[in-house]
Amino acid sequence: MVLEVGQLTLITGANGTGKSSLYRSLRLLAEAAQGRLIASLAAEGGLSSTLWAGPERFSRGMIDGTQPVQATTRSGPVSLRLGFSGEDFGYAIDLGLPEPMHPFQRDPEIKVEAMWTGETLGRANLFAERRGQSVGLRNSDTGEWRRALSNLLPFDSMVTHCADPIDGLELLLMRERMRNWRFYDTLRTDVDAPARRPQVMTYTPVLSSDGADLAAAIATILAVGDSGALQEAVADAFPGAGIIVNGDDYGVVEMRQPGLLRSLGAKELSDGTLRYLLLIAALLSPRPPDIMILNEPEASLHPSLLDALARLLIRASRHTQIVVVSHSETLIHSLRDKYDVREIALCKRLGETRIEDHDPPRWVWPKR
Question: Do 120 and 51 share a structural domain?
Fold first, then answer.
């Protein structure tokens, strides 16, 4: 599947159409820059857990229902391919089965990696290539290739092992950009959520993936970020309300609400209210990432908050490319009404995830 995302992209579709799988694919791609890709795949069941469970090809009869779906002879190698590109750089990785006698059979091997300038891979714009254990880098001035490594282990990526400020500057820049991608799908709001407890007050420009450092993140926005936008976002969702962080060494988030004689601490806030404050802290980060991916941000939110969430997402998309995975019709309609959002609607045909009415961009995978 090849898809094109915009500044604010909405991934929609019925349950079981592949929204969560698409989200995990993006996360796996980012983990290549963290050195965690192979371990993450192994934890999810190995390469086999990611592979298509249907036939390699559908015949015309299978599609129109005149012939039962049946296995076909595999013509290509077992492969999991992930990649992305933009106006400046692109990257792709191809993973396959390990050797039969490999001691860790859940660990796939990295067969090929490629990094290039521009949107589409070609020989002229390729500047880093990994094949098996060998990595080649091209000099940007002379165009000459040199071998950077000849013994790279099959579970190590060239993104983490060949990026340095002298010989692999482009790789280094791309690695840091990929490490800056942010994913939010585990923001905790239960009664024992860390965000409800006092937290060490330290400079925190980026909210953690589980929201444990909410108080410090909010205090950082108030001190060095767009404090006005933060209070506006709170008042937009909860008219007349405002938030403060109370405490010096250890702080807690508190919300002032009209009609109450005291502020309510994080322990007293509803799950939906706390989740909204977590989304504010994530989306109004003083250090916006290149891309942020949110999986079902509407979870636990009352429908009355979704208009305000749509406005918050639109505001954040001025500085960050945002991908939202959602099946909330209220949020979807609100975003459609307020913004020229790029919508990618997933559907299923014979178990295969497909994109409705989508003209995929040109894409070239590196060959083994």
Answer: yes
